[in-house]
Amino acid sequence: MLNNNVKYFQVGQGVWGMRLLFVNVYMIANRRSAGKGWVLVDTGIKGSAKKIIAMAEDLFGPGTRPSAIILTHGHTDHAGSLKELLKYWNVPVYAHPLELPYLTGKSDYPPADPEVGGGFMSLISFIFPTKAIDVSKNIREIDPHDGVPELPEWKVIHTPGHTPGHISLYFPLNAMLIAGDAFTTTQSESAFYLLTYTKKFSGPPKYITTDWIAAGKSVRKLAALQPRVAATGHGPIMYGKELQTELSFLANRFESIAVPDKGRYVGRAAVSDKNGVRYIPPYLITAKLKATLAVTAAVASFLIVRKISKSWA
Ligand SMILES: [Zn+2]
Ligand SMILES: [Zn+2]
After folding, report:
1. 19, 68, 113, 200: most buried by Cβ count inside 10 Å?
2. Which listed ligand is nearest to 24 at the C-alpha?
3. What spacing in Å lies between the alpha carbon of 104 and ligand 1's midpoint?
């Protein structure tokens, strides 16, 4: 759909999505009999507020605002435009209790692990901001049993691993799943896959997942639901048999498909609680990492030298 100069797509009945460079946001309308209005799920990268508002006004009319914003988790590519949006829409923001420290300025996320994944995104994960933001004024704890009052028909499923308070949303009536980064439908370590949205069923983004045991359990939990539609944080929407086959394959072979061979958080998870990060495994400098660092440094100095020589020309 291309209206109002915004490009978005329909996921299923009452659910729409929009791709913001390499990450998706979703809007869910309540069925009239169930509840009022609509909610926004995730807010994309920084600078996306105008596009999100344009999409909302195109779908629900001028001056519309969601009854709530729900965050699958607080990573910067999902919560990047949150502060900006709250200037226009002063609405409650729901997140899992274990995700709150990173949204109330209490704790930063554990650092990314540039060693895993092997792609360009892993390299730039050095600069992936893991700093907490503070939206305390609007934040509400999700009650994992009762879900979100503004979205009564959808179940909230705690799917930790990628982050401690990561959640997925599930609509049993249509077997529709919004999975955040619990799994993805593109290879998010590769800039090529990520930016072209090339379909490739994958586990959570490797360089920023800090508990692989929990991440595997979460994927198995989602596979057991046998969703018919899956909308993820990164990559295209997947449906039907293709989705179920790929998801159960990932669930059954999570350790060999999704978990990196080695890395900072492999075999040793970061530990966190309601107050934020408690333990971060020490960094082991390996030969591979040294090589990675050398390549990054070489590319950076090449770019700097080129810039300097250009400015002298
Ligand atoms: Zn994430
Ligand atoms: Zn993400």
Report:
1. 113
2. 2
3. 17
Residues of the chain with pLDDT under 70: 1-4, 117-128, 284-289, 292-293, 296-297, 300-313
**pTM (2 d.p.):** 0.89
Which ligand has the nearest atom to the CA of 209?
A: 1
Cα separation of 27 and 70, whole Å? 10
Contact 219, 251 (CB under 8 A): yes
Count of beta carbons in the 10 Å neighbourhood of residue 173: 10
Question: How far does residue 78's CA lie from ligand 2's centre (Å)?
Answer: 6
Contact call for residues 161 and 72 (beta carbons, < 8 A): no
Q: Which CATH number fits domain 2-282: 3.90.1140.10, 1.10.150.120, 3.60.15.10, 3.30.70.1170?
A: 3.60.15.10
The Å distance, Cα 187 to ligand 2 centre, comes to: 11
Scan for tokens 């995104």, then name that residue: 121
The number of the ligand nearest the C-alpha atom of 44 reads 2
Q: Rounded to the nearest whole angstrom, what is the distance from the C-alpha of residue 101 to the centroid of ligand 1?
A: 15
Which ligand has an atom closest to residue 234 CA? 2
Query: pLDDT digits over 180-193, tens only?
Result: 999 999 988 888 88
Ligand 2 centroid from CA 307, angstroms: 31
- For 56-106, the pLDDT digits (tens) are 999 999 999 999 999 999 999 999 999 999 999 999 999 999 999 999 999
DSSP string, 235-248: S--EEHHHHHHHHH
Distance of CA 279 from the midpoint of ligand 1 (Å): 19
Task: Among the bound ligands, name the one nearest to the CA of residue 102.
Answer: 1
Residues in the chain: 313
Q: Where are the domains positioned within the chain?
A: 2-282, 284-313
